[in-house]
Write a structure and sequence with these properties.
Layout: E1 2-5, E2 10-13, E3 20-21, E4 37-40, E5 44-47, E6 52-55, H1 69-76, E7 86-88, H2 94-97, E8 101-102, E9 109-110, E10 116-120, H3 121-130, H4 137-140, E11 149-152, E12 156-158, E13 162-166, E14 175-181, E15 184-188, H5 196-199, H6 211-228, E16 231-233, E17 242-244
Parallel strand pairs: 6-7, 7-10, 10-11, 15-16
Antiparallel strand pairs: 1-5, 2-3, 2-4, 5-6, 8-9, 12-13, 13-14, 14-15, 16-17
Length: 245
C-alpha cells in the first residue's frame, strides 16, 4: 500500500476549540492561552490494490486561489480528487470533517461526489444532539440525504479488507479502521490514537469522551501493532505522521 500524509499545517487549540495556525519556526507556544495543545491537521490517502482511500477530510479551508486545500494537497501528490473512491470518516468533529463538502448555502456540494462516504449513523445523529463548537451541523447537513453515504451501524468490514470498529472513546460514536492489503496492515485510530507519544505513555485526557477507554485502547493497539507489524497513521502528530515497527 502507498500511504501519503496530507498535512494542512500546524495549529494550537484551547478550550475555545478554535484552530489557530502556528509557525513552528517563529511562534512561541508559551504565548498561546494556558492549556493550548499543539497539533497537526493531517488527513491521509492510502492507495490499495482496489481503491484510493481518503481517511478523514481536514478543516475544509480553501487556499488563496479559492481551491479546497484538501484538493490542492491531493494534486500536489499526483492524485486527482476525482480518483478518490472511498472516504473513511472516524468521526465528524470539525477538524476531521470540515472537508466533506465545499461551498456554502444552497451551493454546497460534496467534495468527492464520485466517492462513497463511510460514516457511523449514530455519529451523524449525535452531531445534532451535541452541536457547536465540536460539530458544525449546518456544514454536515448535506450528508443526511446524500446517496453517496454508506451509513454504518456498529462494527463490520468493507469490501472484505477494511475493518471498522466503533470505540466510543474520543467521541461517543468514534470509529477506527484497519486496512489489510498485500500482507500489510495500516491502522488509523483518528483521535483515539492521534499522536505517537500518546501510544507510549499512560494518561487520561480531559478532552476525550471516555479518557480511560482511550488510554486502554492505545495500549492494546500499540502492543498488538508491535506484534503484528502494523503501520500506524497519526492525524495530529507534528513530527511522526506515520510509524512502522
Amino acid at each position: 500500500m502507498k500511504v501519503i500524509p496530507l498535512s494542512e499545517g500546524t495549529f494550537t487549540i484551547d478550550k475555545t476549540k478554535q484552530f489557530v495556525p502556528f509557525d513552528t519556526g517563529k511562534d512561541d507556544l508559551q504565548e498561546r492561552p494556558v492549556g493550548s495543545l499543539l497539533v497537526e491537521i493531517q488527513p491521509f490517502v492510502v492507495v490499495t490494490s482496489e481503491d484510493v482511500l481518503l481517511l478523514d477530510t481536514g478543516l475544509g479551508f480553501t487556499n488563496a486561489q479559492g481551491r479546497l486545500q484538501l484538493h490542492q494537497n491531493l494534486m500536489d501528490n499526483g492524485i486527482n480528487p476525482g480518483e478518490v473512491t472511498k472516504v473513511l470518516m472516524t468521526h465528524l468533529h470539525k477538524d476531521h470533517a470540515g472537508g466533506v463538502a465545499m461551498g456554502s448555502g444552497s451551493e454546497r456540494t460534496l467534495s468527492f461526489p464520485q466517492a462513497r462516504y463511510y460514516i457511523q449513523k449514530k455519529e451523524m445523529e449525535y452531531v445534532y444532539e451535541k452541536g457547536f463548537p465540536s460539530y458544525i451541523p449546518e456544514e454536515l447537513d448535506i450528508l443526511k440525504n446524500a446517496s453517496q453515504v454508506e451509513w454504518l451501524d456498529g462494527n463490520g468490514v468493507i469490501d472484505g479488507y477494511i475493518k471498522y470498529e466503533i470505540t466510543g472513546a474520543h467521541s461517543k460514536f468514534h470509529q477506527v479502521y484497519w486496512i489489510v492489503d498485500g500482507g500489510e496492515t495500516v491502522f488509523f485510530g483518528g483521535d483515539d490514537a492521534p499522536q505517537l507519544q500518546q501510544m507510549r505513555s499512560r494518561f487520561i485526557a480531559k478532552y476525550d469522551y471516555d479518557g480511560k477507554k482511550c488510554m486502554e485502547l492505545r495500549q492494546q493497539w500499540w502492543e498488538q501493532g508491535e506484534q503484528e507489524k502494523w503501520m500506524f497513521l497519526f492525524y495530529h502528530d507534528v513530527q511522526n505522521p506515520v510509524w512502522e515497527f
